[in-house]
Write a structure and sequence with these properties.
Low-confidence stretches: 78-83
Mean pLDDT: 90
CATH topology: N-terminal domain of TfIIb
Order of helices and strands: HEEEEEH
Number of domains: 1
CATH class: Mainly Beta
Largest sheet: 5 strands, antiparallel
Number of helices: 2
Strand content: 15-25%
Shape: globular
Number of strands: 5
Helix content: 10-25%
CATH architecture: Single Sheet
Distance between the termini: 27 Å
Structural class: alpha+beta
């Protein structure tokens, strides 16, 4: 089960308050500006900075390419910016 669309429209990074990319098939929310991912466990986003995972350059590039190829929109509605 994926995250509710209404929730996705309001979710933001707890550190920089910017939009996130949601990869439902990987159960993560990703902040491309900070290279940080947040786990989604049992359809609940774990939005704690201390539990976020820092992503290396190769993984960052992979996630951005995946988002672009799938037309993935960032959270915060269509007004959000991507990296």
């Amino acid at each position: 089960m994926a995250l509710d669309q209404l929730l996705l429209e309001v979710l933001a990074c707890p550190e920089d308050k910017g939009p996130l990319l949601y990869f439902a098939d990987e159960d993560i929310l990703y902040n491309p500006r900070l290279h940080r991912s947040y786990a989604v466990r049992d359809d609940i986003p774990v939005m704690l900075v201390d539990e976020a995972t820092t992503v290396d350059e190769a993984e960052h590039a992979r996630l951005l390419a995946k988002a672009e190829s799938s037309g993935l929109e960032p959270t915060l509605g269509s007004g959000g910016a991507t990296a």
